[in-house]
Amino acid sequence: MNSRALAALLSSLISQLLILLLLLFPPSNANTNSFSSPRHSFQESLFLLLRHFLSTSDIAAASLSFLSLSRKRKRAHSQDPDDPGDDSEPGSRLGRLGSVVPRNPDSFKQFFRMNASTFEWLCGLLEPLLDCRDPAGSPLNLPAESRLGIGLFRLATGADYTEISSRFGVSEGDSRFCVKQLCRVLCTNYRFWVGFPSQTELDSVSTRFETLTGLPNCCGIISCTRFHVERTNGADSIAAQIVVDSSSRILSVIAGFRGNKTDLQILKSSSLCKDIEKGVLLNSQKHIAVNEIVVPQYLVGNGDYSLLPWLLVPFVDADRGSVEENFNNAHRLMRVSSLKAMASLRNWGVLSRFIGTEYKFAVACIGACSILHNMLIMREDYSAFCDELDDKVLDNQSRASLEGNLIEDKAFVIRKALATRAKI
């Protein structure tokens, strides 16, 4: 084995070992529908190392080459003698999908909401987990790229299982299995991609917000969005609470709330709120003073939330040219990243229409698309990213409500001090 092949093999082994360690030491979380959790120092180090390895193209190629060996061994007994089955060359995975995958890059993105290189990278990463399970008593004998393609096609387009079955040449039952398996693998094994940042990462998040608006110590934008679910007794909706940074990367997503609840009700019942109030999150000992007022770490939300020391909403009826208006303008600018993230999630076809009748599966789709959203940002693949917003949407989302709900004096003082720092 030459030195390059050996280096590739060792790199792949290291990346897989890091994944295994994260699986053995998962973050604790009491909320089963939550895809966010606090990081401990050991997990922080693993995550940073893992992201370093997985974000490089050399490691991706190494993973493809190494993991294909295990797949060949697994399927050797059923392989067609006339099929060379060579996985080692880039693009071979896509070739085995045959006429299902369009060669036009724009069409490929429409099918899978990612470019071809990201598809191959993701297939190499997920292959051991996609290959390790088949329906009970009915072996699929499908390669990982077909399983991934079926799952992504459903998430990307929202196509029904009849269309998927016809396009990929599999039964509807097998199509359902592949879609659920992809969601299960992502939400179980890669939920750290939407895990709440460590304190070191939060410092970086707040620095970027301060550069953008002049407001220090902001650790994210919180909002709720709702997705439609088709029920046997009529339409319903599921709410998801999402926190994002200035790049629209999702820092926390908690899904599974009934859509008829208000944003404030959802917040109060979420594990995120409980962890913040217990001091588990947003607990930095680094004090930032603005006009002699200590400003803790905080989130920013729209007027549907109450004003709290760790959650700042816009001023109501701010005078033109006042510092309060400057704060509202900065607040409006920060919320753009949240609206882009929610619009990007709706670019996944399965979330832009009625998801289906299974409530748990709908929650899994929201989690899977959130994880894929962050993965694409990490890969700098913006195939599913929404970069344009309607001004009317932004104006409506930034509207402040009456400040009659649970305003704390401390929160009011903090917001008043921060208003003097907002960039004009």
Automatic annotation (TrEMBL):
Signal sequence extent: 1-30
**Where, per UniProt, does this protein localize?**
Nucleus
Give the record's keywords alphabetically: Hydrolase, Membrane, Metal-binding, Nuclease, Nucleus, Signal, Transmembrane, Transmembrane helix
Entries under InterPro entries matching the protein: HARBI1-like (IPR045249), HARBI1_dom (IPR027806)
Q: In what residue span(s) does the DDE Tnp4 domain sit?
A: 234-374
Top-level taxon of origin = Eukaryota
What stretches pass through the bilayer?
46-69
Cofactor requirement:
a divalent metal cation
What residue spans carry the region label Disordered?
A: 75-101
Q: For this UniProt entry, what is the primary localization, expressed as one broad class?
A: nucleus
Matches recorded under Pfam families = DDE_Tnp_4
Give the family this protein belongs to, as stated in its UniProt record. Belongs to the HARBI1 family.
> Which named protein is this?
DDE Tnp4 domain-containing protein
User: What lineage is on file?
Assistant: Eukaryota, Viridiplantae, Streptophyta, Embryophyta, Tracheophyta
